[in-house]
Amino acid sequence: MKKTRIPLLALMILIISTVTTGCWNYREVDKMSIVAGVAVDKGQKDKFQITVEIIQVSAGKDTNMTSKTITMEGKTMFDAARNIISISGKRLYWSHAKVIILSKEIASQGVTEVIEWYNRDSETREDVRILISKGTSAKEVFAGQGSTDDIKSFVLEEMIKNQVSLSKAPMMDILKFNIESKTQGISTIIPTVNLLKKDGKMYPQIMGTAIIKNDKLVGFLDGEETKDLTFIRDEVKGGVLIEEMQANDVHTLVSLEIFKNKTKVTPVSDDQDIEINLNIDTTVAIDEINSSETIFNEEGRRELEESAENTLKERIESLIKKIQSEYNADIFGFGAKLRENDAQVWNDVGNNWDEVFKDLKVNVQTAVHIKNSAMLSKSSKEGD
Amino acid sequence: MQKEQLSDKEAIFLIIVFVIGSSLITGVGGEADNDAWIAVVVGLIMVMPMILVFSRILSLFQGKDLFDILTLTLGKRISKIVAIMYIWYAFHLGALVLRNFGEFINIVAMPETPMFVPLFCLGLLCIVAVRLGIEVMGRTTAYFLPILFLIIVIVQLLAIPQLHLNYLKPILGSGLIPVLKGGFSALSFPFAETVLFIGVFGSLKTKKSPFKVYYWGILISALIIIITTIRNLAVLGNMRDSFYFPSYAAVGSIKIGNFIERIEVSVAFIFVFGVFIKSSICLLVACKGIGKMFNLKDYRSIVIQTGLLMIYLSYIIYDNSMMMKYWAFKVYPFYAFPFQVIIPITIWIFAEYKARKNKMNCFSSKCP
């Protein structure tokens, strides 16, 4: 027994050390190109033209990360993605991609056919953000100047992430987009990116919303409208409300920082009449003010709250009107809410929700609470 | 040779891992869409009478396993036929579970590796485990289960920021029928698959009621499945049913700060261990049955052969993963129904009848 044990052990070590040297199809980091982001345009020859931004790591005293872009066409997304090998020589690695930018043209043909591959493949991830390039072609966004980082896709991702304190563009990743486009009674939205010209350089800017109805791009909303939209969708995490005040006959602007918001959408239905009650409850703080003391007493505060409530209400009502008359796309998700709360009513009206939505009555109620005035308890300007 | 013994605790652990193993990752009750978790509850209620039947059979024949019981109740000839059926069921189920694992590895992690490689690696491990016996498997499970629990709980907590509970609504929006259908499929996969434990629990240490073991095992595992189903639904919404492996996709979307992300491998760990235990149990039951059929002294002499055959079967059983999903949710509930419900109830009726008929003749080995 003892004699056989040592050779047996040696054999085992030998087998283990030869068999477990690595994965079957492993790839070294330097043998692949890591994709940071991808832009999809309508191709000239083939259907899709995709541009990938690839991270290039150059070693030296400090490791430098720069990026370069490769453009290629293909009949399908996957075809185009693999065609890139013919230029780059390396296979692309998709797991670290942060953004996917769709051009206006390709989005008006249909969004799902672009992202379907992205959703299905196992190397790509569902948490990649979707953007629609509003003014320029998608590939030009990568040609712009990164303001904080050399890799444009990372900059774009930071911009989307930090929208929580701006609320001028919605958050949308592939998973959420898929869920929303599969849900009945809601039209999806996608944030838009455009290039801003400054000092002869082009900077990408994320602001505004693209409206997707039945999988096709139908229109755009600007940044301010997007903020109202996020209020209705209950996605507000932060941002600024600007309020005009008339204090001591002086026209002045007050900035209110949004801290908390709760939007309640309650569909009310009796027989064939469906109404939506929209209750918006916002907590804000005065963060910038340019007037005399009046605002800090009870009466002035109440006045400010009321006027903020009215402004918000007006803006939301006008946005709903605009969407109903111009696009007739339920981007607020009223239909989905109705389906969640009352499936029976939805089964009756769901099939022609478009028509119901067109003349849907929405009762907007807004409440704004001022919780503090930041660090200063008085106005900075001396009253006269 | 000493008789192998299994403590109650280990037996409960075995049932938990057996049940959650593959169902945790492939998802349960797909027919019911966003009411899948209710379907699991329905499945749990449906399986309760079957637990009573299983444990009653076991306590009528203490210390005996499935194939002895068959001979004692149904007579020599018929019992042989039923025994062959059960051997096939155990063998086939083991292959199906192995194949689930193979598909998982092939789709998610290593698309270019031939599927035979992961199948063979895990199958080999099962063969080793079954040769070592149920006692070793019980202890292994008792060792690993706390780790599995820890992973499940931590992942569950980390997923909280991603939950959208409104995805669960409308509750019962499309009526009761899809829920009942989902419940039926949850009964057959995974709850009533525990019928195979009749073939194992002959070696329970305490001869009291196996009901306790079944009851707690099923209850705890059902709880875990319900919670994970709710999580998957609340994260993936109506996309849940589109994924082959919803848990993997749901956990993949966890993102906390910039450092806790891409932790879906933790789910794979649970899955690998679950599949290992599940196909080992299946292999064990199949081998025991074959051993009894041919009056072998010990089932261990045929483990390697049966195990290798199981690996081959799992390799050729499906052409593709679409077939796997179709089979698992559309065909399997009906295919498994006789093995899980009809035959056990028949055995139970015969057993009660025989036990009443000759009360002085006691079947259990403990009787004087």
UniProtKB/TrEMBL annotation, chain A:
Residue span(s) of domain Spore germination protein N-terminal: 25-194
Highest rank taxon of the organism: Bacteria
Bilayer topology term: Lipid-anchor
Pfam families: Spore_GerAC, Spore_GerAC_N
Principal place of residence: membrane
Keywords, sorted A to Z: Germination, Lipoprotein, Membrane, Palmitate, Signal
GO terms of biological process kind: spore germination
Lineage of the organism: Bacteria, Bacillati, Bacillota, Clostridia, Eubacteriales
Residue ranges constituting the Spore germination GerAC-like C-terminal domain according to the UniProt record: 207-373
Name of this protein: Spore germination protein KC
GO CC terms, sorted: membrane
PANTHER family named in the record: SPORE GERMINATION PROTEIN B3
Entry's localization field: Membrane
Family: Belongs to the GerABKC lipoprotein family.
From TrEMBL, chain B:
UniProt-annotated location(s): Membrane
Gene Ontology annotations of biological process type: spore germination
InterPro entries: Spore_GerAB (IPR004761)
Keyword annotations: Germination, Membrane, Transmembrane, Transmembrane helix, Transport
Pfam family membership, one: Spore_permease
Ranges annotated as spanning the membrane: 12-30, 36-61, 81-101, 113-134, 141-163, 183-201, 213-234, 267-287, 299-318, 330-351
Protein name: Spore germination protein KB
Organism: Desulfosporosinus lacus DSM 15449
Lineage: Bacteria, Bacillati, Bacillota, Clostridia, Eubacteriales
